[in-house]
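Internal tracking record. Fields below are filled automatically when a chain is submitted to the structure queue. Please do not edit lines marked as system-generated. If the sequence contains nonstandard residues, flag them in the REMARKS field before resubmitting.
Queue: standard
Priority: normal
Entity type: single polypeptide chain
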Amino acid sequence: MHKHNYTIRREMPSDIEAIDQVTKAAFASAAYSSGTESFIIRSLRENGQLAVSLVAEEEGVLIGHVAMSAVIISSGNEGWFGLGPVSVIPSKQGSGVGSGLIRAAIDALKELHAAGCVVLGEPSYYGRFGFSSDARLQYLHAPAEYFQVQSFTGNIPEGTVEYDDSFNVTS
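SYSTEM-GENERATED OUTPUT FOLLOWS
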């Protein structure tokens, strides 16, 4: 296993263009991609909804990015966030960079005293980070098994989840 010497840090204004490029490159070949991921991140940032934005950097080059944004729960529970988009450049995919970014983003949420986190993605992948499906909390726009939850407090609200309006942008 080749050890990658990358560091994870918070985004800086000088990273914004590179985050755009990393995101576009990461999703370019993804069958499920809408092609709007970079627009979503930009919109979240412009609307003050990018609660956590971390980059992975290797030898001065950005190789990955993860975003966290607040989600709205129909029950009114606050302090819940959505994970994603997560991007790793194609040449570094499968090398653990994405996992490192996800773990760092979850830790950053805990530092913000968040109540919990949700993710829309592959159950077998996200399960290793402590996510699991829970019938109490639902997302109606995707198959139930792809929507997973992680509570930091032990409590899971009952209701439906909506992501920020930024996830609907198309340009």
